[in-house]
């Protein structure tokens, strides 16, 4: 089947077939050198919708050569010109929001209305935002000596390797490659094997705006594709989002080359609901925060909810009532609130944790009704689970599940609940729900997390610095700070005027 053109294609199955067997290297859709492919499965019904190209080390070499060749030209462009081209990518992507939303819903099982279309819109917005930040690539003048002119300038690192996950692949790709491009780097993306299609299509669209080789994307598996990308000698920076275990492997490989790395890893984010909180608002925040519409597949998911004893029972009643009213079903149906888990392995992992929680003495409150349409009998649909009564040592309370499971604990002492919230290997995000300013400020200061919100539970937003502490990673994304600190190096220039 011929490669798709650049007009929007609203039939996601047709588009998936047209993208089969393709990588994007040097501005063109090409097959892997080996000709090998692997299946892309629709998790809503188990059907194979495409065959993704199986990228390997030889394909990494091709992409690296193209990116390295293009980087000198790209870096030599005035930064405002780079910004205009990146912003133009955002404008072009905006024309494809519906197409990309449908395609990512097909391959990931995320509901179109509540998740996938939103992600496609954010994808376009991120490129528009970072394109507008181009004039902020400014250095400094340093008052070192009145007889010397001392300035600093930001220079690109070179070729950036960006390894992305499957949960929000388009958005997380955008947060990596948009600032890298504006800063003057060229980029090679390695997509997640579970979700290679929408990001490939997005890169094809952007390649129609950018110089050939500026942006390349490979699909494949970690050992055969991701590892050669990180190890490649022309790759001068790696930015990775994924599991802690894989992040450590990436960090060790980057350390061998002495190149910088940004890691956005796991989370076990606490949500603290105080006695004076607005109950309805806190419940709505929990629904958004647990990411029920994304089947809880989020690093920032509010998977530990600590509710003051005065509100505990009412909170659980309202939360389960609201989640029970949500509709599970066909991800491409506008009426659907909740789609599916991404893969069979992840589905089994989630079900195993639910069984562990029940064996540990917790009560699993299963919410929402499973789909009854026989067309989705093989779909990876999982009921949201709200656990109560888990012991503090519970694995379900301590380990990242990455599924629609949250745990509610009762508390009465603020110092104790802050200690419980901090008793975790992770430190990505946290929220506090209170009407008292002192409590909000005190709790925000004491919580060990890279992102703390009060009375809201938003996902990552452009222009809001985002990144974790402890095992949740290192480095920041989504902001001007990330563009300057993580995708450039600072050069100092001293001119002796005497």
From TrEMBL:
GO molecular function, one term: oxidoreductase activity, acting on the aldehyde or oxo group of donors, NAD or NADP as acceptor
InterPro entries: Ald_DH/histidinol_DH, Ald_DH_C, Ald_DH_CS_CYS, Ald_DH_CS_GLU, Ald_DH_N, Aldehyde_DH_dom
Domain Aldehyde dehydrogenase residues, every copy: 35-493
Keyword Oxidoreductase: yes
Signal sequence interval, chain numbering: none
Keyword Ribosomal protein listed: no
CDD domains according to UniProt: ALDH_MGR_2402
Catalytic residues as annotated in Swiss-Prot or TrEMBL: 264
SUPFAM superfamilies attached to this UniProt entry: ALDH-like (SSF53720)
Family from the record: Belongs to the aldehyde dehydrogenase family.
PANTHER family: ALDEHYDE DEHYDROGENASE-RELATED
Name of protein: Aldehyde dehydrogenase
């Amino acid at each position: 089947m011929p490669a798709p053109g650049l007009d929007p294609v609203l039939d996601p199955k047709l588009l998936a077939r047209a993208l089969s067997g393709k990588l994007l290297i040097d501005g063109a859709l090409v097959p892997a050198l080996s000709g090998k492919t692997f299946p892309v499965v629709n998790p809503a019904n188990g059907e194979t919708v495409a065959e993704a190209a199986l990228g390997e080390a030889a394909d990494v070499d091709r992409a690296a050569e193209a990116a390295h060749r293009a980087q000198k030209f790209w870096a030599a462009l005035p930064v405002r010109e780079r910004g205009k081209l990146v912003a133009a990518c955002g404008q072009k992507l905006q024309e494809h929001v519906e197409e990309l939303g449908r395609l990512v819903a097909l391959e990931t099982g995320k509901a179109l209305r509540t998740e996938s279309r939103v992600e496609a819109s954010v994808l376009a917005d991120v490129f528009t935002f970072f394109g507008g930040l181009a004039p902020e690539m400014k250095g400094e003048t340093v008052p070192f000596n009145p007889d010397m002119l001392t300035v600093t300038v930001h220079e690109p690192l070179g070729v950036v390797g960006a390894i992305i996950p499957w949960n929000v692949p388009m958005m997380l790709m955008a947060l990596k490659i948009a600032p890298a491009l504006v800063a003057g780097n060229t980029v090679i993306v390695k997509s997640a094997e579970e979700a290679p299609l929408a990001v490939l299509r997005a890169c094809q669209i952007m390649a129609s705006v950018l110089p050939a080789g500026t942006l390349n994307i490979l699909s494949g598996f970690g050992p055969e594709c991701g590892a050669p990308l990180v190890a490649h000698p022309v790759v001068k920076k790696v930015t990775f989002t994924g599991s802690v275990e894989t992040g450590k492997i990436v960090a060790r490989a980057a350390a061998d080359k002495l190149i910088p790395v940004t890691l956005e890893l796991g989370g076990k984010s606490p949500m603290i609901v105080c006695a004076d909180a607005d109950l309805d608002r806190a419940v709505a925040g929990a629904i958004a925060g647990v990411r029920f519409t994304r089947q809880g597949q989020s690093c920032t998911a509010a998977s530990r909810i600590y509710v003051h004893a005065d509100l505990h029972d009412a909170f659980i009643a309202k939360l389960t009532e609201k989640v029970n009213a949500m509709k599970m079903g066909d991800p491409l149906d506008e009426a659907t609130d909740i789609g599916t888990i991404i893969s069979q392995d992840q589905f089994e992992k989630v079900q195993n944790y639910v069984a562990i929680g029940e064996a540990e003495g917790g009560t699993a409150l299963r919410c929402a009704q499973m789909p009854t349409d026989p067309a989705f009998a093989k779909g990876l649909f999982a009921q949201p689970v709200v656990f109560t009564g888990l012991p503090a040592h519970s694995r379900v309370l301590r380990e990242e599940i990455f599924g629609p499971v949250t745990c509610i604990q009762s508390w009465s002492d603020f110092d104790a609940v802050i200690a419980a919230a901090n008793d975790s290997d992770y430190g990505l995000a946290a929220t506090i729900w209170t009407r008292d300013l002192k409590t909000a400020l005190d709790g925000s200061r004491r919580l060990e997390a890279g992102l703390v919100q009060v009375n809201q539970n938003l996902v990552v937003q452009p222009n809001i610095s985002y990144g974790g502490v402890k095992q949740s990673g290192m480095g920041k994304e989504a902001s001007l700070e990330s563009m300057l600190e993580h995708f450039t190096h600072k050069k100092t220039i001293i001119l002796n005027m005497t």
